[in-house]
Amino acid sequence: MVVAYTLAYSPCPNDTYIFAALANGLLADAPEVRVALADIEELNNAAEHGTYDLTKVSYGAIPFLMNRYRILPAGGALGRGCGPLLVARPDAAPPLFSEFAGKRIAIPGERTTAFMLLQLALGTRPKTVTMRFDRIIAAVAAGEIDAGLIIHESRFTYRDAGLIAIADLGEWWENMTLLPVPLGAILVRDDVGEDQVRALDGAIRRSLAFARANDHAVMPYVRAHSAEMNDDVIRAHIDLYVNEFSNDLGEVGHEAVRALFARAHDAGILHRTVEPRFA
Q1: Is 152 a catalytic residue?
Q2: CA distances (Å), origin 237, targets 80, 229, 265
Q3: Closest Cα to residue 74, out of 208, 182, 189, 181?
Q4: Do residues 190 and 68 make contact, with C-beta atoms less than 8 angstroms apart?
Q5: Is the pTM of this model over 0.90?
Q6: How do residues 158-173 score in pLDDT, each as one tens digit?
Q7: Which of 49, 152, 216, 271 is catalytic?
């Protein structure tokens, strides 16, 4: 009997680009997958219940999931120059970054890496309102909220709404640690056997290699699910977030993940020490 594994990831261009070939049956001899697409915070919450065999989640959520899942080497988002941004209207921004601790900030989720980095950079938990990532820019521009923590495609479009960047939290992280910023990972549930884990990890690598070699075959799938329809933005998104770490975290990636967990624990964001488990 053929087993179909449940695989969940976001509709953002980096995820759909990596998984297009696997999701659409374009790979020979690949494990069969049943795909679900959802916003990253929805995926973070679903992972708490072990909903999917494989799932994309934020590194901010992973410390709470290590009793059920392990981190796959392939398919994640980790890199340099790609961190979340804190943005605001020019006329509403206080002069000091530290003053944002008292402002109402829209965040894309409580368990997102973006929010973990914001707390680390501010040294405290600010006032927050949670909303989908693709609503944050409009809410800030309309004055519904003082500032917004933006991720994904929003990094390329916030200026079009008249907003300015207050802080680049990826840059802050890199300056503090000299490491790339861990954003999201593909987790595999513990009840998936080791042979199957290797096959699935290999299939993700092959799916990425297929996309790089056959751009024309995967881009319709990417465009069909992107929240941003501008081709230049979609391409910039893929170019930034899909990199060598998408193929293999490697030792540098492992070190970055351990550093994030350790700093979050030292700052009181995580109330117990958690070691990442890598598949």
Answers
A1: yes
A2: 13, 12, 31
A3: 208
A4: yes
A5: yes
A6: 999 999 999 999 999 9
A7: 152
